[in-house]
Amino acid sequence: MGTDIDREAFGEADDAAFLQRLEHCLSTLGALLQRPGFGMGPATLGAELELSLVDGAARPLDHNQAVRAAADDARVTVELDRFNLELNATPTPLAGRPFATLDEELRRLLGRVADAAQAHGGRPVLVGILPTLRRADLGARAISDLPRYRALNHRLRGLRHDAFRLRIAGADPLELASDDVALEGAATSFQVHLRVDPADFTRTYNAVQAATAPVLAVAGNSPTLLGHRLWEETRIPLCKQSIDDRDGRGPRRGLARVGFGTGWLRGGPLELFAEGVRLHQPLLPVLGDHDPLAGLEEGHPPPLEELRLHQGTVWRWNRAVYDPAAGGHLRIEMRALPAGPTVTDMLANAALLIGLSLWLAAQDPSWTYALSFERAEHNFYRAAQHGLAAELVWPLGHAGRVGTRTAAELVAELLPAARDGLVRAGVVAAEADRLLGVIAARVATGQTGAVWQRRTLAALEPRLGRERALAAMLQRYLDYGASDQPVHSWPTGP
Question: Residue 381 and residue 241: Cα distance in Å, rounded?
């Protein structure tokens, strides 16, 4: 999110000064994008992994700051709720064996966190939503004791003028209201970053938007919330509703702060940054130390601190990122994938998403006229709700036709395309084959992380009841996850 936050209260003067800086940032970024060669360079892959901490009874452990301090690594950071941490992997070239590199680093960081958590009787768990959460775990006291998160909570509540309300369908529909944003911390994700040359940004971003639905369908790992069986990827409606800043006192107007977008990108990356500024009020109006306009004149990539900070509070499922590092560049942050069940499963999901996106980006972009944005958005939410059983619309060939497939059928058909996208980008074929083979096996068995959780809960609940069954299920999840065998191979049963 860029600038460090050490304030919690802001006034109208802060907002006005920050909005002026945002306009300067947009002007500067527009000028940078016009410079020949700006942002060009080898594609890189990076990742952020959010996780939960649990105690010996598989209940949330609210010692994230102590665990982070004990881990003593700048790549480990505190997240929204006191049982959340985030691991930030170092970007690595996409060509070669990028997933093996990420695998090694993530395991090393997870080992540090596990050692640090053990001193507090806890351990990390990689799961989209912690199954053992109770409503009492998600009140205002759950929010991490840092100015950034207290300020976010205060500002979002001020814009909302009402409670944050969840309404999620499922086998056990859930409706509840909250006076704070702690519910959002229930969701943990595996966020993938791809560096993209500005000239390729539009077609690649649109490809990522389209590819996200089938990948999300085969990656589901969040079937319960507060004991309710809901969507295969309950994180999606949870995040959208739990920090919805639109005024709750009347009809909803405007675009939700967490969303899929407004349409296919046509005008280039600046369009996305400008849209984030125009549509969403600043939440953390903290001015950086550098004037964006002066930075451009100095001839080196300006930090654009205000724009980066603001973009970090507009939570699109696929988000544009400007980074001044390495001469200045753009990335696409893919935010829809869940944490877990294993590092291997997460990297397989990432490989499918990156490969399919790169393959689709290389096709004639006319597919964005055949597949309407509304259909792509519908695909995204149906994939989140129904997983591999979702009915998805997809472009067929070059004749402007679309067809409907179940997500399971579609993913199986698209695996060769994803392989082609990875190999053409320079990923070693053996690495692509290994990870896409995990996806193929998951489709063949029909067992995603969400499916395994639902099946195991159904097997345990008649004997144990819902609450104890959820805890027992999570204990098994932790044990199987420690073996790092992909989730499609995990047994279910009483």
Answer: 14
> Model confidence over 29-70: pLDDT tens digits?
999 999 999 999 999 999 999 999 999 999 999 999 999 999
Which CA distances in Å does 470 have to 100, 190, 229, 267?
A: 33, 23, 11, 47
Alpha helix positions (H), 328-448: 343-361, 367-370, 373-386, 407-424, 429-445
The rounded distance, in Å, linking the Cα atoms of 344 and 481 is: 10
Listed in sequence order, the residues at least 6 apart from 479 whose beta carbon sits closer than 8 Å to its beta carbon are none
pLDDT surpasses 50 at 1: no
Residue 17 tokens read as: 């000064």
> Residues 76-118: pLDDT tens digits?
999 999 999 999 999 999 999 999 999 999 999 999 999 999 9
Dihedral of CA 220/457/103/186: which sign?
positive
Extract the tokens encoding 230: 């809901």
- Among all chains, which residue has been given the structure tokens 């990742």? 47
**Alpha-carbon gap, residue 132 to 453, rounded angstroms:** 12
Q: Give, as one character, the DSSP assignment of residue 327.
A: G
Those residues with Cβ within 8 angstroms of residue 184's Cβ, 6 or more apart along the chain or in another chain: 80, 238, 239, 242, 243
% pLDDT > 70, the chain: 97
Quote the CA–CA distance of 273 and 319 in Å, as a whole number.
Answer: 9
Model pTM greater than 0.85?
yes
3-state DSSP helix/strand/coil percent for the chain, to nearest 5?
50, 15, 35
Nearest alpha carbon to residue 337 among 436, 478, 157, 208: 208
> Does residue 332 or residue 299 have the better pLDDT?
332
